[in-house]
């Protein structure tokens, strides 16, 4: 299925009921389970990734399919390792290509027993769960922070707690801080000094928890504001002092012609039209924002140099190549060292008349490209249902704002 999306003809102020964060929801579900808490989590995300976590935690089966949900795969692998029994965990075809060896080796060193069912280093996994000893461990911090968050959350349940020494350049740090901060909400205080994180052995306390709105989802609305002259939006539910690293989107978009103001009524965005000449940024702490910025900068004609993208190749798709291929259809020639950067120096080529954007089973490809209809008139988005991974109501909200849609099978 494909959507053909056309730019809104009438720009009117719009209030966006943002979805809540899948990252926070999935941590809350694991911490609630570890705390044996019967208290409900308020505002739990309606995303596929969170619904898959919920289903797994409520299931009586010993086999789990987590689809394309990275956090669900990584957090559940650690969680199941400390529960006595034999478990199988699998996922989508792409999940079977996303590495998990660092986490598996760490868990095995801490006393778990995990085997690869198909390819060494990748899901599916067979987990023989048991009580874990814990203790000191060295772990690369430069591949995925999700391995670290997964280990930290089960740290208190290990006999000797956990002392993780992170090696290499630590990526996605805000997600690790988010984990530690949520563990503290559930009664366990850890320490992060230099590259060592220490978690004491202990017992989580049951608590009520409310999930806040998702700053990564908010980024697509900053893009809408940047690409529509006269645009005024009111984003509901985002916290000003959030632990979500993607909250950085608000100040970064100043350079892309969007002002923001926190008020009692919500976060107010306004198109100012004042844009920078170039945009250079290191996305090491906000990897999920890279696609939003690449598409916005191209549409605004702002050359860019992005660094810190070393995790993009192992996400839902190889996001570096997906961006290069799809932006070319819109007339923009990008380049990359195929490791950690993405550059647009302003070079253009002929644009396809109505570009048909492939989404590679990646929700963020669909969400980042759709607002580009405002700058090129119209475009097509393939497999639009992918957005349900983090933001199921995205299309409904874009329609309500004024984008026009037609469907093709
Ligand atoms: O912990 C989390 O909730 C996440 C961590 C990040 O992954 P990496 O640590 O693999 O970069 C991020 O890209 C992902 O969307 C969610
Ligand atoms: C990378 C992402 O998710 P995950 O790694 O949890 O699948 C994402 O949502 O952009």
UniProtKB/TrEMBL annotation:
Residues 15-58, 62-398 form the Enolpyruvate transferase domain. 3-phosphoshikimate binds at residues 22-23, 27, 144-146, 172, 288, 315. It catalyses: 3-phosphoshikimate + phosphoenolpyruvate = 5-O-(1-carboxyvinyl)-3-phosphoshikimate + phosphate. It is found in: Cytoplasm. The active site is at 288 (proton acceptor). Phosphoenolpyruvate binds at residues 22, 70, 98, 146, 319, 364, 389. Keywords: Amino-acid biosynthesis, Aromatic amino acid biosynthesis, Cytoplasm, Transferase. Pathway: Metabolic intermediate biosynthesis; chorismate biosynthesis; chorismate from D-erythrose 4-phosphate and phosphoenolpyruvate: step 6/7. One of its GO terms (molecular function) is 3-phosphoshikimate 1-carboxyvinyltransferase activity. The keyword Transferase applies. It holds the Pfam family EPSP_synthase. Belongs to the EPSP synthase family. Catalyzes the transfer of the enolpyruvyl moiety of phosphoenolpyruvate (PEP) to the 5-hydroxyl of shikimate-3-phosphate (S3P) to produce enolpyruvyl shikimate-3-phosphate and inorganic phosphate. Monomer. This is 3-phosphoshikimate 1-carboxyvinyltransferase. It comes from Saccharicrinis fermentans DSM 9555 = JCM 21142. The gene is aroA.
